[in-house]
Amino acid sequence: MIVGLNRIFEHEGKEYHVQVEDLGEEQASFEVRVHSGGGIVWQKKMSTAEILAKGLPKAEQDEAVSSAMEKALHTVQAAIARGKLP
User: Fold this and answer.
1) Distances in Å between the alpha carbon of 1 and those of 12, 27, 37, 63, 86?
2) What whole-number distance in Å separates Cα of residue 77 and Cα of residue 2?
3) pTM here?
4) Position 1 pLDDT exceeds 80
5) Which sequence spans correspond to the domains of the chain?
6) Collapsing DSSP states into helix, strand and coil, what is residue 40?
7) How many CA atoms within 13 Å lie on the side-chain side of 63?
8) What pLDDT does 86 receive?
9) pLDDT of 85 above 90
């Protein structure tokens, strides 16, 4: 399991906390959540099954999952900036 990612992002006077949490190999996924105003305003579970199916060595697998998590964080942050997410 990989340690999660957290970023505080401000857009149009609102503060968003974007959180990405690895749910482990058993669930083969990670979850992205956007918090604002004291609650979760958006969330999505994303699969890592394709990465895990490659049978990579553990270090490479962790790096691939971590990279996917980082990419998801940036994508969500960009979606907020474009007004696509609350």
Assistant:
1) 34, 11, 29, 11, 29
2) 20
3) 0.92
4) no
5) 5-81
6) strand
7) 5
8) 79
9) no
